[in-house]
C-alpha cells in the first residue's frame, strides 16, 4: 500500500529500496543559474528599500532576458560548438503491443545517426529514477503495450539540425511509423493510493477532538480492483477508531430530520494544460573520456535533477565522475517540477556520441507529454442546521485520475481532500481521496495542486445551500467561517489570525455585491436576451509541503560589498527580486552580487536520505543525534514557496548576520572614545537596532553606513559571512550553536556555517575548513515531530473574488464584465509582484472555469494532435483586463511574515463565475468548464 501524505513525498513506500543520499552525488557536482545581464543599476532600490523594477526587468524590456530554451552548445563556455538534436516517437495506442518502428519513409539521407530503444537502455544498465513515481520504463519495450498514451517508444538523434528538422516533419502525424502487433495486456499501473481524513470535535471548537488525523492518524486503504478497501470500523487501532467515527458521521447524515438541510451533489473538474510559453527542453553533453556530464535543463527542481541524473547514470555502463548542471530562467506552473522530461534529456546526451544533444518539445509534443492538471470526480454531502445556518457535518469522496505515471498524484489527491472544507469550520467531517491510474497523460503538481478542484466545488455548493436556506451567501459564509484557534479538518490549528471576517465585510460592502439586484434589473431591462449575474467565491489555499528546506548565504567584504547566494531561482514569480529585497530590508544594503539556483554548497556538509515523510519518529530521533543530519536538503521552486519558505532562509541568514556582525560592529563604533563614547550615556539594546534610509542606528546613535560596519566587523574578526539551512514541517526547526567567543545561540534553522573577518585570530580562521567556511556543528536541534505531517497543512493565504458576468441566452456565451478580489498575504515584500500574481492567476482561473478542457484518453492530447488551435485559452477580452480591481488587507503589524499567495489567486474566481451564472439564469452547473453549449442546453 502506498502511503504518500504530502506533495513532495515521492520517496515513500511506493519507491521501496530507493534511498538517495546527497553524499552519493558525484563530487564535485555543480549547478548554476545562467543569469541574464545587464544587472540592475545602483538606482534599483528607491528610498526605503522599495525596488523600482524587477531584478530582471532591464533584460526583459530590452529583449535580453533569456530562458533555458534559448541556449545552444555554442553559447555555453567549454562546450563543443557542434550541436546535435533529438526527438522521440510516441505510442498513440495502449491496446496493442509495440512491434517496432518503420523509418522507411525517411530514406537513407534522413536516417538518424543514433536510434535509442528500451533494449539499449537495458543493455547499458540505465534505469528509471524512482520506480513508480516516474513509471517503470523510459521507452515502451518491444512486445508490450504502452503504459500511457504518448509514452515514447524511441529516440532519434541527429548530428545536424537540417536533417533532424526534415525528419521530424516527415514523421509527424504519421500513424504508420510506430508499428503495433496484436492486442496485449494492459501495462498501465494499478491504483496509486487512498487516504481518508476523519474528524469529530469534542462538542465545541475549543474542546479536544474525539478523533482527528493529527491526534490519531490518517486512514489508509488497499485496493480491490480500483476500489479502496478501508479498514473495518472498531475500537482497535487508530485506523479502526477513525472508521468508527466515519460510520458515526454517515449514520447521523442518514438520520437527519427536517431541522437539517442535507445537500448531496456530484461535481467534475477537467484535465487541463498549464500552457507555459516555454515548452520542456534540455541540452546535455556527455564526455565519456572524462566522465563528465554537462547539462542545461529547464526545471523547477534542479537539486532533484542533479541527484536523479547521477543516480541513473552511476548505475550504468557510462563512466561518471561529475555532473555540471546549469539551469536557466524558466516557467512551468508545476509542470517542470519533478517531471520526467529532464531524464530523457540525459538519455539524449548519453547517446550523443560525444556531442551536445538538444531535446526540446514543440507545442504538439508539449501537449502530448507534459504534466497536466488532474481531473477530479467529487461526491459531496453537506448537513446544515436550518435554525442556526451552521454546518453540522460535511463529507467528500474525491476520485483523482493520475494518468499513466504516478508522479505527485497521491499527494495532489490528498491535498485536495484536506482542502475541501475551504474556509469553514466543520464540527464533523470525513474526506477521502482515491487516486487511480489510467492510460491518460500523467498529471503532476500543476498550479492549484488539487485544491482548485475541491474548493471550487465546495464554494459552488455553499452558494446553493445558502439559497436553499434563504440566507444571503455572504452571511451564510460569515456564520461558518474559521476563526483563529479553530481546527481544520485534520484537527490542526492554522497559523496565526484567520481574517475571513474582514474579507467578508469588505465583500458585502462592495458595490458589485451590495447593488447586484438593482443592477440586474436595470441591465436586463436595457438588454433583452441577456442575463446579468454577480457571484462570490471565498477560499484559502495552503502553501508548503510539510518538508520545505532551503539554503541561503550572505557575506560581505571589508569594503561592504554584499553577496547573496540562494537555492531559489526564477520561474516567473519574481523570487529573485523578492529575496534580494528581503535581504536589503534587514541589512540596509542591496546585494551587490547575487547567485541564484545554487545547488553546490560545500560549506554545508549535510547528510540526508531525503525521507522527511516516511522516516519513523524513532529513526529520526536516532539520526538527529548526528549534527550533520537533516530530514531534507532543499526544495524545488513552486508557485507559493519562495516568499515564505525560501524567504525564511534569507531572513534568518540576515538576522544571524545582524546578531553576529552588524550589532557588535555597530556597538564597537558607537563605543569609541573616552568613557565609552556616544553609547555610554544611553541604554542601547539589540532590539533598538533599526535600519533607516539604508543606515544602521539604535536609540539615537549616529547612523552608520554599511561600509563602515563592514570594515569594523572585518577589523574585529567578527562573523562576516553566514550560510543557513532551514527546515519546516508545518513548524520551523530550531537549533542551538556554540560559536567561538559568542556562546550558545538559538536560531530558527537547523544548520549554520560562518566566515570570519580579516582580523580574526589564526585559531578562529583555522576553523574555516569547508571551502573557506566554518561549519558549526549544532549543539542541539529541535525538529517538529513527524506527527505534524498528519496536520496536512497549517499555513493558509485567503482570497475572495466577486465576478460580474452577462449570459447571452441566444448564443450561450458568458462575458465577464468585471471582477474584484480581496487578498490577505501578510506583509507584501514587493506589492507589484503580488499584483501581477493576482492578475495572472485570475486569468488562469477564468480559463479553467469557462474554456480550458482536455479529453483524458484517445481523443485527448496523448494522440499528439493537440495544440492551441484546439485548446482554448482566455485572452484579454475574456478576463475583463481593463475593469479588474483588487485590494490587499493591510498586515496586522510590521512583523507579519509574507504569505505564499501565488496559487490561491486563481481559485476563488472559478466558483465566483459559476455562482454568477446561477444568479444570472437560475441554473447551476456541476461540471467544468461552463461552456456556451452547456448554457444553451440548460436553457433549451
From TrEMBL:
Spans traversing the lipid bilayer: none
Stretches assigned to the Aldehyde oxidase/xanthine dehydrogenase first molybdopterin binding domain: 255-481
Residue span(s) of domain Aldehyde oxidase/xanthine dehydrogenase second molybdopterin binding: 507-593, 633-879
Signal sequence extent: none
Location of the region described as Disordered in the Swiss-Prot/TrEMBL record: 609-632
PANTHER family reported for this sequence: ALDEHYDE OXIDOREDUCTASE MOLYBDENUM-BINDING SUBUNIT PAOC, XANTHINE DEHYDROGENASE
Name of the protein: CO or xanthine dehydrogenase, Mo-binding subunit
Amino acid at each position: 500500500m502506498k502511503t504518500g501524505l504530502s506533495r513532495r513525498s515521492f520517496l515513500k513506500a511506493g519507491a521501496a529500496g530507493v534511498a538517495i543520499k546527497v553524499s552519493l552525488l558525484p563530487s564535485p557536482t555543480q549547478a548554476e543559474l545562467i543569469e541574464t545581464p545587464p544587472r540592475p543599476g545602483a538606482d534599483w532600490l528607491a528610498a526605503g528599500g522599495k525596488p523600482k523594477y524587477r531584478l530582471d526587468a532591464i533584460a526583459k524590456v530590452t529583449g535580453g532576458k533569456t530562458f533555458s530554451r534559448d541556449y545552444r552548445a555554442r553559447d555555453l563556455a567549454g562546450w563543443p560548438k557542434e550541436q546535435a538534436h533529438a526527438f522521440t516517437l510516441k505510442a498513440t495506442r495502449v491496446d496493442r503491443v509495440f512491434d517496432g518502428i518503420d523509418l522507411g519513409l525517411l530514406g537513407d539521407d534522413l536516417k538518424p545517426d543514433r536510434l535509442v530503444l528500451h533494449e539499449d537502455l537495458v543493455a547499458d544498465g540505465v534505469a528509471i529514477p524512482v520506480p513508480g513515481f516516474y513509471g517503470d520504463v523510459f521507452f515502451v519495450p518491444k512486445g508490450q503495450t504502452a503504459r500511457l498514451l504518448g509514452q515514447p517508444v524511441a529516440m532519434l538523434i541527429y548530428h545536424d539540425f537540417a536533417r533532424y528538422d526534415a525528419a521530424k516533419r516527415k514523421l509527424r502525424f504519421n500513424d504508420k511509423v510506430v508499428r503495433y502487433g496484436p492486442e496485449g495486456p494492459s501495462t498501465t499501473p494499478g491504483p496509486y493510493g487512498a487516504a481518508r481524513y476523519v474528524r469529530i470535535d469534542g462538542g465545541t471548537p475549543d474542546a479536544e477532538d474525539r478523533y482527528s488525523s493529527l491526534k490519531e492518524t490518517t486512514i489508509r486503504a488497499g485496493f480491490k480492483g480500483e476500489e479502496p478497501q478501508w479498514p473495518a470500523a472498531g475500537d482497535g487501532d487508530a485506523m479502526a477508531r477513525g472508521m468508527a467515527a466515519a460510520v458515526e458521521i454517515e449514520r447521523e447524515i442518514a438520520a437527519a430530520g427536517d431541522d437539517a438541510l442535507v445537500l448531496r451533489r456530484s461535481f467534475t473538474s477537467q484535465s487541463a494544460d498549464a500552457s507555459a510559453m516555454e515548452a520542456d527542453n534540455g541540452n546535455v553533453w556527455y564526455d565519456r573520456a572524462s566522465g563528465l556530464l554537462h547539462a542545461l535543463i529547464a526545471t523547477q527542481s534542479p537539486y532533484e535533477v542533479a541527484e536523479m541524473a547521477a543516480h541513473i547514470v552511476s548505475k550504468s555502463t557510462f563512466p561518471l565522475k561529475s555532473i555540471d548542471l546549469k539551469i536557466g530562467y524558466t516557467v512551468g506552473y508545476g509542470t517542470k517540477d519533478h517531471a520526467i522530461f529532464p531524464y530523457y534529456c540525459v538519455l539524449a546526451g548519453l547517446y550523443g556520441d560525444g556531442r551536445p544533444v538538444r531535446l526540446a518539445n514543440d507545442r504538439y509534443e508539449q501537449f502530448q507529454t507534459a504534466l497536466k492538471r488532474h481531473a477530479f470526480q467529487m461526491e459531496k454531502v453537506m448537513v446544515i442546521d436550518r435554525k442556526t445556518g451552521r454546518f453540522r457535518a460535511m463529507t467528500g469522496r474525491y476520485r483523482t485520475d493520475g494518468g499513466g505515471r504516478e508522479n505527485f498524484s497521491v499527494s495532489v489527491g490528498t491535498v485536495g481532500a484536506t482542502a475541501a472544507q475551504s474556509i469553514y469550520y466543520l464540527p464533523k467531517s470525513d474526506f477521502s481521496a482515491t487516486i487511480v491510474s489510467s492510460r491518460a497523460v500523467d498529471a503532476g503538481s500543476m498550479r492549484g495542486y488539487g485544491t482548485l478542484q475541491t474548493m471550487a466545488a465546495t464554494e459552488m455548493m455553499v452558494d446553493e445551500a445558502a439559497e436553499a436556506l434563504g440566507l444571503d451567501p455572504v452571511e451564510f459564509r460569515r456564520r461558518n467561517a474559521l476563526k483563529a484557534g479553530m481546527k481544520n479538518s485534520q484537527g490542526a490549528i492554522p497559523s496565526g489570525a484567520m481574517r475571513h471576517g474582514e474579507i467578508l465585510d469588505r465583500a458585502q460592502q462592495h458595490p458589485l455585491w451590495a447593488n447586484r439586484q438593482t443592477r440586474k434589473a436595470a441591465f436586463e431591462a436595457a438588454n433583452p436576451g441577456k442575463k446579468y449575474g454577480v457571484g462570490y467565491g471565498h477560499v484559502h489555499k495552503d502553501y508548503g509541503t510539510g518538508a520545505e528546506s532551503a539554503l541561503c548565504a550572505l557575506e560581505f567584504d571589508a569594503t561592504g560589498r554584499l553577496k547573496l547566494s540562494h537555492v531559489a531561482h526564477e520561474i516567473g514569480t519574481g523570487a529573485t527580486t523578492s529575496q534580494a529585497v528581503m535581504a536589503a530590508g534587514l541589512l540596509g544594503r542591496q546585494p551587490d552580487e547575487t547567485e541564484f539556483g545554487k545547488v553546490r554548497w560545500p560549506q554545508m556538509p549535510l547528510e540526508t536520505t531525503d525521507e522527511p515523510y516516511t522516516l519513523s519518529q524513532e529513526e529520526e530521533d536516532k539520526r538527529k543525534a548526528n549534527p550533520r543530519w537533516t530530514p531534507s536538503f532543499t526544495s524545488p521552486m513552486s508557485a507559493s514557496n519562495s516568499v515564505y519558505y525560501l524567504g525564511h532562509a534569507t531572513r534568518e541568514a540576515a538576522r544571524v548576520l545582524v546578531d553576529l556582525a552588524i550589532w557588535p560592529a555597530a556597538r564597537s563604533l558607537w563605543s569609541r572614545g573616552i568613557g565609552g563614547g556616544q553609547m555610554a550615556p544611553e541604554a542601547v539594546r539589540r532590539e533598538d537596532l533599526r535600519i533607516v534610509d539604508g543606515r544602521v542606528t539604535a536609540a539615537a546613535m549616529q547612523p552608520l553606513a554599511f561600509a563602515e560596519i563592514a570594515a569594523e566587523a572585518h577589523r574585529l574578526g567578527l562573523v562576516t559571512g553566514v550560510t543557513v539551512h532551514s527546515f519546516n514541517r508545518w513548524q520551523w526547526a530550531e537549533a542551538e550553536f556554540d560559536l567561538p567567543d559568542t556562546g550558545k545561540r538559538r536560531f530558527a534553522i537547523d544548520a549554520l556555517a560562518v566566515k570570519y573577518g580579516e582580523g580574526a585570530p589564526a585559531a578562529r580562521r583555522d576553523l574555516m575548513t569547508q571551502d573557506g567556511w566554518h561549519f558549526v556543528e549544532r549543539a542541539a536541534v529541535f525538529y517538529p515531530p513527524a506527527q505534524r505531517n498528519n496536520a496536512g497543512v497549517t499555513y493558509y493565504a485567503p482570497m475572495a473574488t466577486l465576478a460580474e458576468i452577462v449570459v447571452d441566452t441566444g448564443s450561450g456565451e458568458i462575458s465577464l464584465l468585471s471582477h474584484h478580489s480581496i487578498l490577505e498575504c501578510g506583509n507584501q515584500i514587493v506589492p507589484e509582484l503580488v499584483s501581477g500574481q493576482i492578475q495572472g492567476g485570475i486569468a488562469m482561473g477564468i480559463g479553467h472555469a469557462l474554456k480550458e478542457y482536455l479529453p483524458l484518453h484517445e481523443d485527448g492530447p496523448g494522440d499528439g494532435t493537440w495544440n492551441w488551435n484546439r485548446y482554448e485559452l482566455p485572452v484579454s477580452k475574456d478576463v475583463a483586463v481593463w475593469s479588474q480591481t483588487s485590494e490587499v488587507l493591510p498586515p496586522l503589524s510590521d512583523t507579519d511574515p509574507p504569505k505564499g499567495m501565488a496559487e490561491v489567486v486563481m481559485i476563488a474566481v472559478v466558483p465566483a463565475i459559476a455562482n454568477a451564472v446561477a444568479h444570472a439564469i437560475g441554473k447551476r452547473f456541476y461540471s467544468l468548464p461552463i461552456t456556451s453549449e452547456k448554457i444553451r442546453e440548460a436553457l433549451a
